[in-house]
Design goal:
about 260 residues; five-stranded antiparallel sheet; globular
């Protein structure tokens, strides 16, 4: 059995540790894997681990019977913040109020997010109309708008593998309303309550994740789902815990392939 771990040149240069460790862990379990950036559509592997945001490529592999991690539905919905909001709200998951920017009538302040942004990029605080217009001019595509919800500079990322929460990390920033670890924030491990774990499991069942990060805001009455990272990074897991989450992901991939 031989699969591919899909990157592009830019993403691979930033994530060599993840790519090479996943390849090694799969090979330790007896499954061949190649890290690829070019000529991908001409390949017909047994499986493809998608580490780029490319819904079209996901669907291509689906059409020729190649098992993808994550699947094309996750790629299509979770890489679009508006589609994520709709899917979650339609399934009764607590979410922040969200509008498309072009239809927004929320009071200020507002938070502006590019629909396809990742890692805290293209997320802007708008205290008034002038800042709102500047924020829109900086987004590369269409945007959504949300009110400030939860504790500023604090959020929770829960890593999920095969539908089960593996570890939760409280992300913090004392200098920015965004708490992303990649933007200079810090983190610590967080123990989910039974109620919180049940919410995570409900979301995982909606999407059938292989490996994803679910981000929550900390509301007064409980967790509020903010967004979902399909191609999720895990530097803070290795920085602040002893959990070998890439190894766990490799084990999930092999178990899934064996069941297939």
């Amino acid at each position: 059995m031989k699969g591919i771990i899909v990157y592009n040149d830019e993403s691979l240069s930033k994530n060599k540790f993840f790519a090479e460790k996943l390849k090694t862990e799969l090979e330790n379990l007896g499954v061949g894997a190649e890290i690829v950036c070019d000529g991908i559509e001409d390949m017909r592997p047994d499986f493809a681990v998608m580490r780029i945001y490319d819904e079209r490529l996901n669907k291509h592999f689906d059409s020729i019977g190649v098992r993808t991690f994550n699947n094309s539905d996750v790629a299509a919905v979770c890489n679009d913040k508006w589609k994520t909001f709709l899917r979650l709200s339609q399934n009764g998951i607590p979410v922040a109020p969200t509008q498309k920017a072009e239809e927004c009538d929320m009071p200020y302040p507002r938070i502006v997010k590019a629909r396809h942004g990742h890692g805290g990029s293209e997320v802007f605080w708008a205290g008034g109309e002038a800042e709102f217009n500047v924020a829109l001019s900086k987004t590369k595509d269409s945007a959504i708008v949300q009110p400030p919800v939860g504790k500023r500079g604090r959020d929770l990322r829960v890593y999920v593998i095969g539908g089960k929460p593996i570890v939760a990390m409280l992300r913090c920033s004392d200098v920015d309303f965004r708490s992303n670890f990649s933007l200079g924030g810090f983190a610590r491990r967080y123990e989910l309550s039974d109620r919180e774990e049940e919410l995570v499991t409900r979301i995982a069942k909606i999407f059938n994740f292989d490996f994803a990060g679910i981000d929550f805001l900390l509301g007064d009455d409980g967790l509020i789902c903010n967004e979902i990272e399909d191609v999720v990074g895990c530097r803070m897991v290795y920085t602040y815990t002893d959990i070998d989450i890439i190894k766990k992901y490799a084990e999930h991939i092999v178990c899934s392939l064996n069941r297939r």
